Amino acid sequence: PPTEKIRIQEILLCSGGGEVLYEWNSRPIERRLKLLAQIEQQAAQVSHLLPAGRFERLEVLTTDGRMVCQIQPHMRLLVRRVNSPAA
Questions:
Q1: Rounded to 5 degrees, what are φ and ψ at 12?
Q2: Alpha-carbon gap, residue 51 to 83, rounded angstroms
Q3: What confidence tier does 61 reach under pLDDT thresholds 50, 70, 90?
Q4: How far is Cα of residue 18 from the mean position of the Cα atoms in its chain?
Q5: What percent of the chain is helix, strand and coil (3-state, nearest 5)?
Q6: pLDDT, tens only, 7-22
Q7: Secondary structure E strands in the chain
Q8: Which of 21, 29, 39, 51 is most buried, judging by how many CB atoms fall within 10 Å of its CB?
Q9: Which of 3-12, 43-52, 63-72 is least confident?
């Protein structure tokens, strides 16, 4: 089977209040901040409907990799990675 190399494409780290603490290659940043805020709102709504415990993360599989969004009281994190053929 072909091997793949994992490459980080984007990182965004915010405080629990949404203040940007670290950003790398996250453009447009405003859209990413809105995405994290929306995920936090949706997680709160789901927790009221289903007692499944604390929301931990959202993982989105894409055609070329995946994106992980983690929302905690003290921080918000978005990391996007892509798979590329190994050299």
A1: -140, 125
A2: 35
A3: very high
A4: 13
A5: 25, 50, 30
A6: 999 999 999 898 999 9
A7: 4-15, 20-24, 57-62, 65-72, 75-85
A8: 39
A9: 43-52
What is the residue type of 60? V
- Pairing relation of β-strands 57-62 and 20-24? unpaired
Q: Say how far apart CA 16 and CA 26 lie, in whole Å.
A: 18
Q: End-to-end alpha-carbon separation of the chain, Å? A: 14
- The residues, any chain, with a CB within 8 Å of residue 44's CB and separated by 6 or more, are 55
Q: Are 23 and 12 in contact (CB under 8 A)?
A: yes
Average pLDDT, the chain: 88
Is residue 36 within 8 Å of 70, Cβ to Cβ? Answer: no
Edge-to-edge strand order for the sheet containing 20-24? 20-24, 4-15, 75-85, 65-72, 57-62
As given in the structure block, the two tokens for residue 69 are 């969004």
